[in-house]
User: What shape does this take?
Amino acid sequence: MNSDTYKAAIFRGAGSVDVVALPFPKCGDDEVIVRNLMTGVCGSDIAAYRRGGDLNMIWKDHEFGHEAVSEVVQIGKDVKGLELGDHIFPHLGYALRDRNRMSTVGGFSQYIKILQCEVGYSLFKIDNSIPTRTAVLVEPFVIGTRGGKESESRPRQVGDCVWRGYHRHVGRDHARLVGLFQGHDCRHL
Assistant: This one.
C-alpha cells in the first residue's frame, strides 16, 4: 500500500462521528488487511447515533460499522485459503478477536486489520461474482433468518418479534417460506 494513513470513522457518542486519519496498519504473519467496499447501516448504528452506543456495543472513540463487504489487499505469510482480491465478510467481533467489539469492527473506515486470520472463523469468503450491493446484505439476512427460525416453534407469536430495517423484511420473508404464518395476514411485520 502506498499510503501511510487511512480514513477511519470514529464514534464519539450520541450525535457525533468523526472521520480521522489513522496510521495504516502493518500486516503481521497471521493477519490480513482488507479494504472495505461497502458497509450497510444497521439499526444498532442508528440507535447509537441517536441515543448513545453502549446498549448496542458501539463504544465511544472506536471505529464502528459491522455489515461490511471487504476486499483482501494484504495477506500475512501464515494465512491460508485467501488470495489478494478475494471478497470477504469480516465476522463481527471474531475479526478483531474481541467479542465486545461485535459492532465496532471498522466497517465505516477504509480498512480493517483482521487479527489471527482464519477463513470460516474471523472472516468468510464471498464469491467475487456476487454484486457488492447484494453481498452487503449477508449479515442482515443471517440475522433475519435466525429471527425467523427462532420463532418457528411459536408461529402465532411471530408478531411479537421486532425486526428492524432489513432484518424485519428478511425475517418476514423467511417466516413466509417456512410457513410460520399459516395463512395469517403478515403485512404488518
